Amino acid sequence: MSEQNCRLCAQPLEQTLVDLGETARANSYVDVENSDHADPTYPLHVRVCGACFLVQIEDTAAPHEIFSDYAYFSSYSTTWVEHAKIYATQAQEKLGLNENSLVVEVASNDGYLLQHFVADNIPVLGVEPAANIAIVAEEKGIRTRVEFFGQTTAQDIVSSIGKADLTAANNVLAHVPDINDFMLGFATILKDEGVSTFEFPHLLNLMDLTQFDTIYHEHFSYLSLLAVEHCLSRHQMRAFDVEQLSTHGGSLRVWCCREHGSHQETEALQRLRQLEWDRGLNQLSAYHGFTAKVETVRENFLNFLSTAKAEGKSVAAYGAAAKGNTLLNYCGVTAESIDFVADANPHKQNKLLPGSHIPIYSPDYIKQAKPDYLIILPWNLKDEISTLAAYIREWNGKFVVAVPEMIIW
What we know:
Elements: E1 13-23, E2 30-31, E3 42-49, E4 55-57, H1 63-67, H2 78-95, E5 103-106, H3 114-118, E6 124-127, H4 131-139, E7 144-145, H5 151-160, E8 164-170, H6 179-189, E9 190-201, H7 203-208, E10 221-222, H8 225-233, E11 237-245, E12 251-258, H9 267-278, H10 290-310, E13 315-318, H11 322-331, E14 341-342, E15 351-352, E16 360-361, H12 364-369, E17 373-376, H13 382-388, E18 398-401, E19 407-408
Parallel strand pairs: 5-6, 5-8, 6-7, 8-9, 13-14, 13-17, 14-16, 17-18
Antiparallel strand pairs: 1-3, 2-15, 3-4, 4-10, 9-12, 11-12, 18-19
């Protein structure tokens, strides 16, 4: 995609949603020995297509530069694994899946989802571009192909294994620069009555709740039902149902089929479609004013850090999450303001956050350091994290979230 043209429909991009400046890539964690080197930065400018209303950033890197060796392992979030288990049960009941079916997950990560189908003797295939993560899935007995998904990959799978009864794509539709080739893959791999599900954070929540920290370089697109239906229709597919989920600050799970499939459109889909129209997501005027809301979040967060420092209070963070890196880098925060960040993922520990160079330690270090404030950077997991780290109350520590607004408790 050039700076001027939509990656979905190729129309000129003229409307800005927000420009977060130039930042380091949110998942490019830094080795300690490189702490003296400035990290490369790339523009993070979000625009809206006035034709198909896909919200998007420009391409700053080829996908293999971001995803071929990846630091995010889904199974480190217990709530996300449970979310996946519930979905697997629901899909089996809804679609009548059995040992003769085939479930394909795109961006299957470490097997957090497919393991639940395997446990019920349903054949599966994961497609995962990060070789380091695919190894973990294979160790769980989950057949996995290490490659990016698109039409060519789908054709290879159909030739070697067959077509799928169900494909799942959780939080990956936003991660692909060539969204047309990606969707062609699903149109290719599905059986005539097969079903594809796509989960993604809902653009409406991003805008309403100022969730700008979900914007980073590996998220090429920010999705509404409106834009996804435009994408589906370009490739002879359609949505027939939708669920509104609490995950990732408010997500959609869209159930899709071939254009001429027999699945009947639900009232839930019709209601959400109408909601987006009522909110004006089909008009560029609805996207005005977001920048001012983002600037207010930054001002409040920096005021908190400044006050804490003036009062001699120590500040740490929990969760070396990509969304946290967007917040910290947009606000210009460094280790001068936040002493360290704790994270349960050993693949991130003893590294530095990109851009800010805040050190990452095991959560056990919190008990040693006893910070006065613990900022929960992945605010979508604040209930889980505040429960895990409830021991900070022993020294009168307080939790903090900065998005969508400052909360200290």
